[in-house]
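Q: Please design a sequence for this.
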């Protein structure tokens, strides 16, 4: 990542973790047009024995996912959480300080520092559309995913639906791009094509609101 982009990302995520969480919830309702429960249920289904949580942020959403997984009586996986922002990781480290099965690392998704075929599952929650180099990120994640492993993402789409909701989503997206917390929305066929180009297959996909939920598998 070049120095100018690095400075922009660091500035965008320089706020305290509690503000990041509040801001994320407001974006969820106004731009994604989705529900928190839907996200928790979607990502919980993708937790497997060796799990990588990409762009874990402050850990708030993953904490909910993990709690839901445990409530269902399923064994908790060994988890590595990575994020580019040390500020956000500070919140995650505080949140998971009593969970030794969760390792938190600073890292760049386009150049993950893990061996090939390390993880059985990868979640990218509310983050793919923030990556400046989406193809490099997908190649990096596909490399560390084990055969049969699954990658789950929810990706922000260009706004659709009725006004004034579409207008509000467009305004929020433009603000996010200026702020540096959004790189670009997508069209679902674009994301699907990028996943297939990395050698992954599509297990499931759906669109809810302005969000594309997809699970891809490594053959």
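A: Design:
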């Amino acid at each position: 990542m070049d120095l100018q982009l690095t400075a922009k990302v660091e500035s965008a995520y320089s706020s305290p973790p509690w503000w990041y969480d509040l801001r994320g919830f407001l974006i969820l309702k106004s731009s994604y047009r989705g529900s928190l429960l839907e996200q928790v249920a979607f990502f919980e289904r993708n937790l497997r024995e060796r799990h990588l949580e990409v762009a874990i942020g402050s850990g708030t959403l993953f904490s909910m996912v993990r709690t839901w997984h445990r409530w269902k009586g399923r064994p908790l996986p060994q988890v590595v959480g990575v994020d580019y922002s040390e500020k956000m990781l500070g919140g995650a480290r505080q949140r998971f300080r009593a969970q030794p099965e969760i390792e938190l690392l600073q890292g760049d998704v386009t150049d993950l520092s893990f061996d090939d075929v390390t993880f059985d599952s990868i979640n990218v929650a509310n983050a793919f559309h923030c990556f400046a180099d989406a193809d490099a990120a997908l190649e990096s994640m596909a490399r560390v995913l084990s055969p049969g492993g699954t990658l789950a993402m929810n990706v922000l789409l260009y706004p659709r639906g009725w006004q004034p909701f579409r207008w509000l989503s467009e305004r929020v997206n433009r603000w996010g791009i200026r702020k540096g917390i959004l790189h670009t929305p997508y069209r679902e066929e674009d994301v699907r094509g990028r996943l297939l180009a990395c050698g992954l297959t599509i297990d499931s996909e759906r669109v809810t609101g302005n969000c594309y939920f997809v699970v891809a598998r490594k053959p």
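Q: Thanks. Anything notable?
A: The radius of gyration is 16 Å. Strands lie at 50-54, 78-83, 102-106, 119-124, 145-156, 201-208, 211-217.
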